[in-house]
């Protein structure tokens, strides 16, 4: 009635009327956007996956999200709602590294997802230590060229760099939140391991910057008439595991770890100390040779988990991504050789590779609808690793900045990893020179020392005793305690 009455008002009072009309259009547009989001969301719901267990119920979605319309780039995600009370739980994004490895194949299907591929790819098994116990869990295959993520412009595949990856991942978030608007105001955290040690802080930085700048951003992201999509995330922090962080400290740590864990001789270690300057952007031939000797010593054991038995499946059936990386990199400058895949366990990844190449699985996941995905699904892509532009040598300046901004920042390290060893990560954290809040001390799970941790003002570093590079795979219970504690912003258990 109020609206009708306004029509009768004299000319001079039309202003509030116009505003009301604008508001109405605004609201209806917003509602349309919301309902469009929800119906797209329903289209992504995964009803049933071949070989999945009947119980418990796991609510999940998957599909592609366009990140660049001009070049036709789309990233693939797999999303699991929290097992209980998803509306009350935070949202956690998980990224694997490589560069070139799939967060679906590793993170979701082999490490911390609720449905992991079972032995011989017969089906899926429920993982009782899944991280979606405490969070809504989003796995992203990034960048384009990884897994089911693709581009219609092939030159994109040879232009990949940290910056490129972060921009696309950010655009993914903007568009994913349009599809899942109920998560937009949720507490949001970013996590990942290995080379995602680069991706995670850089994406965090981008989210932080764009949040500050949200007006301009809304304008950029919305092509219609009204600014109804205020894209400001409730971003709280990040956590990274066995992360590649700083080339100097990580390389120094790799050499020291190999020596201190009796992998290489005193002579070789002395030689490395003499001929290697890890601060140099190019290593000398002598350094290159000495470091190759370290990798050769690791070749017969599992560099990613030095006390574990080596999986020998690869020799006969599938080729091991990590071994492949070593093989071809023998012909390339060592600067490349240091960039090995984050994923490694041929036994696990070969099952994932088999499972995600099944036609019925791809259809159920909305992964390959029009036969659009060119090659076979690979758990890690050699060509991306090879062509990737490694121009960022350290992400420590980003840590310093985001810690100062008050974000929650944790770094954890499986202490049996020879590839991105705990020693190098300690150097990295120490280089930040943060004041100590609580001293280095053990933390406990099931009456045992699960690892150690140290709290600084602004960041926490945690070790997981006896875990390798893939902590959630090697030490699932410890991994779950770790992520719960991080998400709740608490302290790890300091008593038995
Ligand atoms: C890529 O090209 C295919 C075939 O033309 C098209 O169906 C698809 O929508 C394009 N992808 C993107 C993200 O634009
Ligand atoms: C480093 O190595 C690359 C490739 O081998 C070469 O092109 C470049 O000039 C070298 N840079 C320096 C500073 O020596
Ligand atoms: C790699 O990235 C850096 C920084 O963005 C850029 O200056 C350089 O030209 C790139 N190199 C190649 C080979 O594309």
TrEMBL record:
<dbReference type="InterPro" id="IPR001563">
    <property type="entry name" value="Peptidase_S10"/>
</dbReference>
<comment type="similarity">
    <text>Belongs to the peptidase S10 family.</text>
</comment>
<feature type="signal peptide">
    <location>
        <begin position="1"/>
        <end position="33"/>
    </location>
</feature>
<dbReference type="Pfam" id="PF00450">
    <property type="entry name" value="Peptidase_S10"/>
</dbReference>
<dbReference type="GO" id="GO:0006508">
    <property type="term" value="P:proteolysis"/>
</dbReference>
<keyword id="KW-0645">Protease</keyword>
<keyword id="KW-0732">Signal</keyword>
<dbReference type="GO" id="GO:0005773">
    <property type="term" value="C:vacuole"/>
</dbReference>
<dbReference type="InterPro" id="IPR018202">
    <property type="entry name" value="Ser_caboxypep_ser_AS"/>
</dbReference>
<keyword id="KW-0964">Secreted</keyword>
<protein>
    <recommendedName>
        <fullName>Carboxypeptidase</fullName>
        <ecNumber>3.4.16.-</ecNumber>
    </recommendedName>
</protein>
<dbReference type="InterPro" id="IPR029058">
    <property type="entry name" value="AB_hydrolase_fold"/>
</dbReference>
<keyword id="KW-0121">Carboxypeptidase</keyword>
<comment type="subunit">
    <text>Carboxypeptidase II is a dimer, where each monomer is composed of two chains linked by a disulfide bond.</text>
</comment>
<dbReference type="GO" id="GO:0004185">
    <property type="term" value="F:serine-type carboxypeptidase activity"/>
</dbReference>
<keyword id="KW-0378">Hydrolase</keyword>
<keyword id="KW-1015">Disulfide bond</keyword>
<dbReference type="GO" id="GO:0005576">
    <property type="term" value="C:extracellular region"/>
</dbReference>
<keyword id="KW-0325">Glycoprotein</keyword>
<keyword id="KW-0865">Zymogen</keyword>
């Amino acid at each position: 009635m109020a609206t009708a009455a306004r029509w009768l008002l004299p000319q001079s009072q039309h202003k509030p009327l116009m505003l009301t009309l604008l508001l109405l259009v605004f609201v209806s547009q917003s509602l349309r956007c919301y309902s469009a989001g929800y119906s797209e969301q329903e289209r992504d719901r995964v009803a049933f996956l071949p070989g999945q267990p009947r119980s418990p119920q796991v609510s999940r979605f998957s599909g592609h999200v366009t990140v660049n319309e001009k070049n036709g780039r789309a990233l693939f995600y797999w999303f699991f709602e929290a097992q209980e009370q998803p509306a009350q739980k935070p949202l956690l994004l998980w990224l694997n590294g490589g560069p070139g490895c799939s967060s679906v194949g590793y993170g979701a299907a082999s490490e911390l997802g609720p449905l992991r591929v079972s032995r011989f790819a017969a089906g899926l098994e429920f993982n009782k230590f899944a991280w979606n116990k405490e969070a809504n869990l989003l796995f992203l295959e990034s960048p384009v060229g990884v897994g089911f993520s693709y581009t219609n412009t092939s030159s994109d595949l040879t232009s990949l760099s940290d910056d490129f990856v972060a921009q696309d991942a950010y655009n993914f978030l903007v568009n994913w939140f349009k599809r899942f608007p109920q998560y937009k105001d949720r507490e949001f955290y970013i996590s990942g391991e290995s080379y995602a040690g680069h991706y995670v802080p850089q994406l965090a930085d981008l989210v932080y910057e764009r949040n500050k700048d949200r007006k301009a951003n809304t304008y950029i992201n919305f092509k219609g008439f009204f600014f109804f999509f205020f894209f400001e995330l409730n971003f709280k922090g990040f956590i990274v595991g066995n992360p590649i962080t700083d080339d100097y400290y990580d390389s120094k740590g790799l050499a020291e770890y190999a020596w201190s864990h009796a992998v290489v001789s005193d002579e070789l270690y002395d030689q490395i100390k003499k001929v290697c300057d890890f601060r140099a952007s190019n290593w000398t031939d002598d350094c290159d040779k000495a470091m190759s000797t370290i990798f050769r010593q690791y070749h017969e054991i599992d560099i990613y988990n030095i006390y574990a038995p080596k999986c020998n499946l690869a020799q006969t059936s599938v080729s091991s991504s990590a071994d492949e990386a070593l093989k071809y990199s023998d012909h390339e400058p060592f600067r490349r050789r240091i960039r090995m895949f984050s994923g490694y366990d041929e036994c696990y990844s070969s099952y994932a590779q088999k499972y995600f190449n099944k036609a019925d699985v791809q259809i159920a996941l909305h992964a390959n609808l029009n036969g659009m995905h060119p090659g076979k699904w690979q758990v890690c892509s050699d060509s991306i690793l090879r062509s990737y532009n490694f121009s960022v040598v350290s992400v420590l300046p980003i840590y310093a900045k985001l810690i100062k901004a008050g974000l929650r920042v944790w770094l954890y390290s499986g202490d049996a990893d020879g590839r991105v060893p705990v020693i190098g990560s300690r150097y990295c954290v120490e280089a930040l020179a943060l004041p100590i809040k609580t001293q280095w001390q053990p933390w406990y799970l099931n009456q045992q020392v699960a690892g150690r941790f140290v709290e600084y003002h602004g960041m926490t570093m945690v070790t997981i005793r006896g875990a390798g590079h893939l902590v959630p795979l090697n030490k699932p219970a410890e991994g779950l305690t770790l992520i719960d504690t991080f998400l709740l912003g608490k302290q790890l258990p300091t008593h038995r």
